[in-house]
Automatic annotation (TrEMBL):
<keyword id="KW-0408">Iron</keyword>
<feature type="binding site">
    <location>
        <begin position="211"/>
        <end position="212"/>
    </location>
    <ligand>
        <name>S-adenosyl-L-methionine</name>
    </ligand>
</feature>
<feature type="active site" description="S-methylcysteine intermediate">
    <location>
        <position position="387"/>
    </location>
</feature>
<feature type="domain" description="Radical SAM core">
    <location>
        <begin position="128"/>
        <end position="372"/>
    </location>
</feature>
<keyword id="KW-0004">4Fe-4S</keyword>
<feature type="binding site">
    <location>
        <position position="149"/>
    </location>
    <ligand>
        <name>[4Fe-4S] cluster</name>
    </ligand>
</feature>
<comment type="function">
    <text>Specifically methylates position 2 of adenine 2503 in 23S rRNA and position 2 of adenine 37 in tRNAs. m2A2503 modification seems to play a crucial role in the proofreading step occurring at the peptidyl transferase center and thus would serve to optimize ribosomal fidelity.</text>
</comment>
<dbReference type="InterPro" id="IPR027492">
    <property type="entry name" value="RNA_MTrfase_RlmN"/>
</dbReference>
<feature type="binding site">
    <location>
        <position position="344"/>
    </location>
    <ligand>
        <name>S-adenosyl-L-methionine</name>
    </ligand>
</feature>
<feature type="binding site">
    <location>
        <position position="146"/>
    </location>
    <ligand>
        <name>[4Fe-4S] cluster</name>
    </ligand>
</feature>
<dbReference type="GO" id="GO:0032259">
    <property type="term" value="P:methylation"/>
</dbReference>
<dbReference type="InterPro" id="IPR013785">
    <property type="entry name" value="Aldolase_TIM"/>
</dbReference>
<keyword id="KW-0489">Methyltransferase</keyword>
<keyword id="KW-0698">rRNA processing</keyword>
<keyword id="KW-0963">Cytoplasm</keyword>
<keyword id="KW-1015">Disulfide bond</keyword>
<feature type="active site" description="Proton acceptor">
    <location>
        <position position="122"/>
    </location>
</feature>
Amino acid sequence: MADTTLMSIPGQVDPVPVARDITPREDGRVDLIGLPKKDIAALFEGAGLDARQAKLRSKQVFHWLYHRGVTDFEAMTDIAKTMRPWLAERFVIGRPEVVEAQHSTDGTRKWLLKTADGHEFEMVFIPDADRGTLCVSSQVGCTLNCRFCHTGTMRLVRNLTPGEIVGQVMLARDALGEWPKGKMDFAEEESEAEYTADGRLLTNIVMMGMGEPLYNFDNVKSALQLVMDGDGLALSKRRITLSTSGVVPAMERCGEEIGVNLAVSLHAVSKDIRDEIVPINKKYGIEELLQACADYPGASNARRITFEYVMLKDKNDSDEDARELVRLLKEYKLPAKVNLIPFNPWPGAVYECSSPERIKAFSNIVFEGGISAPVRTPRGRDIDAACGQLKTAAEKKSRAELDREAAMAAAAD
Ligand code: SAH
Ligand code: SF4
């Protein structure tokens, strides 16, 4: 469990190696969230339990953590009363700290969160008629500098740990009140029916928050394994989508080792334009990227790859662009759907969103080419629920607060 330093990487395209898988706490206790069962067992053994006890206790604790969502060892009723303080002295059950929570009139919820060492990141929940999708962050900031993306302008970056990633899902379940209620004393005291997963609000996860998930591969993988673990959060891999800007060398591994659905931030169909708006394109070009998509393990007509395409006025939104998009997706025989995303402007952005008519015309051409191309309706506009925007609002506020303090100090003088 090595330490990490902050990374300041303007224009950086390569992944930044970060060894840390746990954020150290000042009180020296270890946060169990984010650790697989075997690591919890190893910690228990290291703290003095014999191997058999450690294994048994880790199984019980794991179930309480991920199946029941408890945050207090005292609630673990099948663990001996004397053992609970022993656990609490050495371990914690962490959650990211909530800096700010917002609720949009359309039901979208957005949280600005903070790691134990003080870094802010975001999470968004988007309810729909038939599903509820949690948009999860993988990094604080992003080392890539897509020109239309506000996260890409943030300087400080570090990878989130598995605990900080899966912790977002735990926190969302807390906020939505979705943990099973009642007691749990393995088998005897509770019927299965009391903790089935039916009727939950949080049904899908997209790795589309802040950061490039494939540049934090190991931690994202560990976190998603906990999300998919039948003894853990037990969400199907079919309900999880990972979005990448096109880190070609990690895509095959993603399909093989994580096995979730893939979304690719394509956003342009020519080298010039994609180089400009998604600079990782200079390293892994469109052809290479589409070939990696064609080879993506597990992709099929039943499990299509989503191509994200942000609509930027007079940049990538012409009829020719739409026709070229269809041609490319067909050339590589991709089981594809296209998500057209209206550009969400932010202060200082150099682009504008295409007009609704232009977006409609673009969508029609792709659709007529035989590829589904829904326009993603902007959600949570009243709370700025787009990548990187809540964080800025909070930063602005603290700046305003600083100014106010300075003014007050000056007045006192
Ligand atoms: N880094 C990954 C995942 C996070 S970004 C990636 O790039 O795919 C999630 C999606 O939001 C991407 O498709 C990204 O291009 C898009 N996005 C970022 N900023 C946006 C903005 N201001 N308006 C619309 N879409 C944006
Ligand atoms: Fe990073 Fe994705 Fe934003 Fe590009 S779009 S800067 S890869 S978060």
